Amino acid sequence: QVQLVESGGGLVQPGGSLRLSCLCFGFSIKSWLMEWYRQVPGKQRELLGMMTTDGTDKYYSESVKGRFTISRDNAKNTLSLQMNSLTTEDTGVYYCGRHRFWGQGTQVTVDS
Questions:
Q1: Which pLDDT tens digit goes with each residue over 70-100?
Q2: Per-residue DSSP letters for 8-49?
Q3: Which of 5, 7, 63, 111 has a Cα at 20 to 30 A from 36?
Q4: Which of 41, 13, 30, 29 minimizes the C-alpha distance to 103?
Q5: How far out from the chain centre does Cα 16 lie?
Q6: Strand pairing of 34-39 and 92-98?
Q7: d(Cα 104, Cα 14) in Å, to the nearest integer?
């Protein structure tokens, strides 16, 4: 069965960093375009970035470009999101997904 499990969220101060992980089960991430996105209450879902199946091309939204980095570990079938220079506007629930499937999300709160 296909499952995606995000982890690594929590409370962090402005200017700090967090690394999120997405453990995938039931499929190989090498065969699918993978994405990270977030949801902020009262706003539409925002696509943060994506990685192609071969890992050679990446896309980042303007709001996170230069601060967030997507990577993958094929041996562990895990996708990661390194987040640096966090601001209060980065607060939200972060999700990992592929076509038709996504995880339960992990809460990221940036506050003093």
A1: 999 999 999 999 999 999 999 999 999 999 9
A2: --EEE-TT--EEEEEEEESS-GGGS-EEEEEE-TTS--EEEE
A3: 111
A4: 29
A5: 16
A6: antiparallel
A7: 25
